[in-house]
Design brief:
- Helix 7 packs antiparallel against helix 8.
- Strands 1, 2, 3, 4, 7 and 10 form a 6-stranded parallel sheet that branches. A two-stranded antiparallel ribbon has the order 5-6. It has a two-stranded parallel ribbon with strand order 8-9.
- The protein is globular.
- The chain is an alpha/beta fold and 335 residues long.
- Strand 5 and strand 6 form a beta hairpin.
- It contains 14 helices and 10 strands.
- It folds into 2 domains: 222 residues, Glycoside hydrolase/deacetylase (TIM Barrel), CATH 3.20.20.370; 66 residues.
- It binds zinc ion.
- Zinc ion binds next to strand 3.
């Protein structure tokens, strides 16, 4: 959307009386937002600032939106119940420390039932995910550029500033995502050689997970927890037994550690190519009610596909406030 349209028209079009007309004409879907990291001073990762998160949540309160959980949305669809007319859900993926220490208290402050999709092996301190290792190697490399051969392709990646490191991380991650899961370790070894950095046994402080005790305390305050595999490997790249183990063991772990985890699954990296009918069949067999992807979109009443509940779309929480408002209102359907 053009800058002037977004900053001048979104505020006017998203509020009564024009929003009433827009809702009548186009309908209003339910957005599920996903957040990854929070912005923390002095840390090498970037994310959503606490001020921006508060600004977004305050907008929803001021405009009379209703906070629901992903499980509420799924139950509403299954039971054919109508959800509140202005419903919004929030999710956070992976289970890093800043999500529990910085983001969760803000959601609790706003009485918003956030759902955490956690990588259980990370909370068990048994591993840190391969994609976090990629980020660590790129972020801490002191080289101005690296050369690496991955999937028969040669990459020359400059690393002289934050933006170049961001681009390099994305290129390496996307290339590894497209490779077979059993080649991840070899690819990481090549990246170790290229960056001149070794992988420590346990995650560095900024890539640490929240611990189970924190999760239990948050659960008591209304935060929900659901599985996001044990190791964050892409399920479609695994054999059937390994894919099933990733799903079932992470679910079992949550049931052992917490009082009432949500029977909703989150696919690692969540694009259409990252999971398929095999994973959906495993989830249904295990009694899950639904699953979220990372495909953008909101939940609308027109959707009738029976697998829809296992392909639920989500928006990445925009860092631009007006993009956020657009996702929450009839403008998302209309523009
Ligand atoms: Zn994830």
């Amino acid at each position: 959307m053009k800058f002037f349209l977004k900053h001048l028209l979104v505020p006017a079009l998203s509020r009564p009386p024009l929003s009433n007309l827009g809702n009548w004409l186009f309908g209003q879907g339910i957005p599920i937002f996903m957040v990854h990291r929070m912005e923390v001073d002095g840390q090498p990762f970037s994310g959503i600032t606490p001020d921006h998160l508060r600004h977004c949540l305050q907008y929803l309160v001021n405009e009379g939106f209703h906070f629901v959980s992903v499980e509420d949305i799924i139950q509403g669809i299954i039971e054919n119940k109508s959800l509140p007319p202005k419903a919004v859900a929030f999710t956070m993926d992976d289970g890093f420390w800043d999500q529990a220490e910085i983001a969760a208290p803000i959601f609790i402050e706003f009485n918003c039932p956030l759902t955490f999709f956690v990588i259980t092996g990370m909370l068990d301190s048994k591993l840190w995910p391969w994609d976090a290792k990629v980020a660590h190697l790129i972020n801490t490399s002191e080289k101005n550029s690296i050369d690496i051969l991955l999937a028969d392709e040669h990459f020359h990646l400059p690393l002289t500033n934050k933006q170049e490191k961001h681009n390099a991380r994305n290129i390496i991650r996307d290339t590894i995502k497209a490779m077979a899961a059993d080649s991840i370790e070899d690819s990481l070894e090549l990246l170790v050689q290229a960056t001149g950095i070794s992988i420590p046994e346990s995650a560095p402080k900024h890539l640490k997970a929240m611990d189970w005790e924190s999760a239990r305390q948050l659960e008591k305050q209304g935060i929900k927890f659901a599985p996001h595999t044990i190791s964050h490997r892409i399920l479609s790249k695994l054999d059937t037994a390994s894919a099933e183990k990733e799903i079932m063991d992470s679910w079992q772990c949550l049931q052992e550690e917490l009082a009432s985890p949500s029977p909703v699954f989150c696919y690692p990296t969540g694009r259409f190519c990252d999971y398929g009918p095999r994973e959906i069949a495993i989830l249904k067999q295990a009694g899950f009610l639904g699953a979220v992807s990372t495909l953008p979109g909101n939940i609308t009443e027109e959707t009738t596909s029976k697998d829809y509940l296992f392909n639920l779309p989500r928006f990445s929480l925009p860092s631009d406030y007006f993009d956020f408002v657009r996702h929450c209102t009839w403008l998302e359907q209309a523009i």
